[in-house]
């Protein structure tokens, strides 16, 4: 395990900062006097990449890459460019850099910046690859923790909506929709009464695959540019009524929040961890040579409106997944589906074996039957209007961490309908 890499940016040299030189995550920011532009987080500052490129400090490719407010153009240049940029940023920002005087004026305080979507989401797919989550959902909804017959063989997924993916901090209206109580004769329309979160990691595809051409798990692994935290907000009552037999639709289409910084696969490399032992051997096309998960500690926090602090309601680790993002991506493309730069893959809800490790309120409250208590003394089953939900994550190294930046969303009341 490497050590903290020292930077001349003082705030980057602590065990507490999510953004030491070891991390260098990619985001998009604006300030009172600048439009959205690409930036790299370092300590409590952001390096303005557009300004760095204009100043000739960054030269990647033949044409400007940072004249646009998203990271897709860098991704499109391929993995040699990804490595070259990371190495160059390391030079510019490391302790003793001869270029410090040129770089320092291009730093902006994170406190003065607003963060925006770091990349253009091409398409969004969500998986169902957390074993404990799948067992819990079976127990709650179908009376048995037994997994569906295909579960140990296929990373199950559904195609979501890129248009529903939003940056951390975006408020989410409680969705209206159709739902039907089990004993009701007819469905009714109105605000979801079972509004939930899903704790997930999002993998970002940075290299395309060709239409009609399958890929291997190792190729898929190389295609992943980086990761974000992902909250797949879910309306359980809408979902429960609509999703048989074709899968989630409106119940998961009203908002999916992501954390603001793309943490690169390169920064996470030393935190690789294996998938759990296979209970059923996977078909050979799903074999890969690398450990496909990462040791990333994850938390879910909940804060009612007006409460002075958030309560930790769940804590788990990305290593709880059964399938890796590379396996999911390989499976996604195996029949010939083209994968594009900017595709976002949700891992599926991450839950561990004990109640404190559950990644959704559905599980924490066992479908509303067992309310849980916040530090404020209030109880919850599902989300109430005004509640703020936060996902937090970091890979913990020896004296440093690779943090993601929080993935935050507050729930607003449903929009009136009919208007
Ligand atoms: O098991 C069910 O009936 C429902 C499962 C989910 O809603 C989970 C889902 O959307 C995929 C995931 O995030 O794991
Ligand atoms: Ca999900
Ligand atoms: Mg360009």
Please give a structural write-up.
The protein is of the alpha+beta class and 419 residues long. The protein folds into two domains: 10-116, SH3 type barrels (Roll), CATH 2.30.30.230; 124-412, Fumarylacetoacetase-like, C-terminal domain (Fumarylacetoacetate hydrolase, domain 2, Alpha-Beta Complex), CATH 3.90.850. It has ten helices and 27 strands. The strands form seven sheets. Strands 6, 7, 8, 13, 14, 16, 17 and 22 form an eight-stranded mixed beta sheet that branches. Strands 9, 20, 21, 25, 26 and 27 form a six-stranded mixed beta sheet that branches. A hairpin with a 5-residue loop joins strand 23 (372-373) and strand 24 (379-380). Helix 6 (217-223) packs across helix 9 (325-333). The longest helix is centred in the first third of the chain and has 15 residues, at 79-93. It binds the ligand O=C(O)/C=C/C(=O)CC(=O)CC(=O)O, calcium ion and magnesium ion. Magnesium ion (MG) binds at residues 63-65, 67-68, 73. The active site is at residue 133.
């Amino acid at each position: 395990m490497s050590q903290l890499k020292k930077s001349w940016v003082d705030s980057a040299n602590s065990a507490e900062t999510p953004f030491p030189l070891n991390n260098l995550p990619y985001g998009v920011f604006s300030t009172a006097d600048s439009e959205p532009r690409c930036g790299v987080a370092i300590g409590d500052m952001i390096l303005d990449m557009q300004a760095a490129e204009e100043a000739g400090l960054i030269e990647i490719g033949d044409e400007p890459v940072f004249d646009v407010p998203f990271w897709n153009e860098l991704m499109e240049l391929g993995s040699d460019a990804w490595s070259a940029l990371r190495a160059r940023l390391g030079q510019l920002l490391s302790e003793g850099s001869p270029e410090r005087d040129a770089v320092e004026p291009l730093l902006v305080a994170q406190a003065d910046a607003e963060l925006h979507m770091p990349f253009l989401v091409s398409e969004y797919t969500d998986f169902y690859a957390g074993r404990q989550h799948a067992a819990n959902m079976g127990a709650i909804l179908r009376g048995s923790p037994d997994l569906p017959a295909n579960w140990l063989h296929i990373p199950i997924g559904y195609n979501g909506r890129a248009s529903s993916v939003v940056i951390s901090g975006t408020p989410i209206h409680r969705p209206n929709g159709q739902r039907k109580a089990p004993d009701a004769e007819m469905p009714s329309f109105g605000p979801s009464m079972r509004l939930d979160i899903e704790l997930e990691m999002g993998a970002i595809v940075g290299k395309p695959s060709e239409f009609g051409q399958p890929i291997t798990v190792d190729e898929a692994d190389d295609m992943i540019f980086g990761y974000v935290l992902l909250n797949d907000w879910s309306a359980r009552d809408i979902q429960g009524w609509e999703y048989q037999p074709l899968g989630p639709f409106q119940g998961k289409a009203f908002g999916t929040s992501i954390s603001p910084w793309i943490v690169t696969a390169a920064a996470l490399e030393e935190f690789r961890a294996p998938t759990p032992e296979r209970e059923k051997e996977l078909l050979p096309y799903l074999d890969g040579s690398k450990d496909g998960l990462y040791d990333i500690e994850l938390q879910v926090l909940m804060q009612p409106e007006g409460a002075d602090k958030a309560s930790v309601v769940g804590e788990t680790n990305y290593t709880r997944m059964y399938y890796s993002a590379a396996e999911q991506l390989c499976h996604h493309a195996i029949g010939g589906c083209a994968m594009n730069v900017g595709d976002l893959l949700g891992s599926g809800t991450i839950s561990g074996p004990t109640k404190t490790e559950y990644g959704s309120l559905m599980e924490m409250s066992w479908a509303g039957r067992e309310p849980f208590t916040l530090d404020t003394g209030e109880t919850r089953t599902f989300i109430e209007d005004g509640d703020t939900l936060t996902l937090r994550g970091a890979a913990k190294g020896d004296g440093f961490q690779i943090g993601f930046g929080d993935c935050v969303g507050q729930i607003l009341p449903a929009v009136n309908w009919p208007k």
